[in-house]
Write a structure and sequence with these properties.
217 residues, alpha/beta, Rossmann fold, seven-stranded mixed β-sheet, 7 helices, globular
């Protein structure tokens, strides 16, 4: 059960700038609570005021490593013990490769970056398959998927929301009778969760399906 740490931290924050929708905190707890106190590595795309990185370091606990990536060089000022910031674009393979070269085992990714559709999709493609097998990939502020200025729009192909909808079929590819190939995403993904403005991918290697029958005499 959550101890409400994130809600309390946010409401009592007098440190770095921290901007979040309040309903996100329940979502964070639901998917990230299991990592607390286990020295995870977390990558957050988008740094801005640095408050989110500081919050994650406190939440995840001693031994955790929090990595930020942002295009603004001034964000380096938010580095601290256990917090490192890479400067570059979230869709740049060179930046993502540099992060994985130093931190090859990333448990958690939170995309709170540009919220531009092509950037969100590119980051997912560069990162997801390289994460730890039981990691979590979370994309927030997905309401921009419906906004044209971010490359989105209702049911618009090329939006991250439509991309994520297609991933539902990939998750179930085993049952598609050959209409859809079983991809690495299928093999490595346990679930997708859709919330107001947040999409969460839970990783876990899929096993052999079993459907035994039990009944009375």
């Amino acid at each position: 059960m959550s101890d409400g740490f994130l809600h309390k931290y946010f409401l009592n924050n007098s440190h770095k700038r921290l901007h979040k929708w309040v309903h996100y905190f329940d979502i964070y707890d639901r998917h990230l609570e299991r990592f607390r106190g286990k020295s995870p590595v977390m990558l957050e795309i988008g740094v801005m005021g640095g408050g989110s990185l500081a919050m994650w370091k406190e939440y995840l606990g001693e031994g955790s490593r929090v990595i930020g990536v942002d295009i603004n060089p001034e964000c380096k000022v938010h580095e601290a013990p256990g917090v490192e910031i890479f400067i570059g674009s979230q869709d740049d393979p060179a930046i993502i490769n540099a992060i994985f070269a130093k931190y090859p085992e990333i448990d958690i990714v939170l995309d709170d970056g540009s919220h531009v559709m092509k950037h969100m999709i590119a980051s997912f493609g560069l990162i997801y398959d390289r994460m730890k097998p039981n990691g979590v990939y979370m994309v927030e502020d997905t309401h921009t998927c419906y906004w044209q200025e971010f490359g989105g729009g209702l049911r618009r192909e090329g939006s991250f929301m439509e991309f994520a909808k297609h991933k539902i079929d990939e998750l179930n590819a085993v049952h598609a009778r050959g209409a859809l190939p079983v991809a690495e995403f299928t093999r490595s993904t346990d679930s997708l969760s859709f919330y107001d403005s947040v999409v969460v991918f839970e990783r876990r290697r899929q096993g052999q399906r079993q459907a035994p029958i039990t009944q009375g005499l």
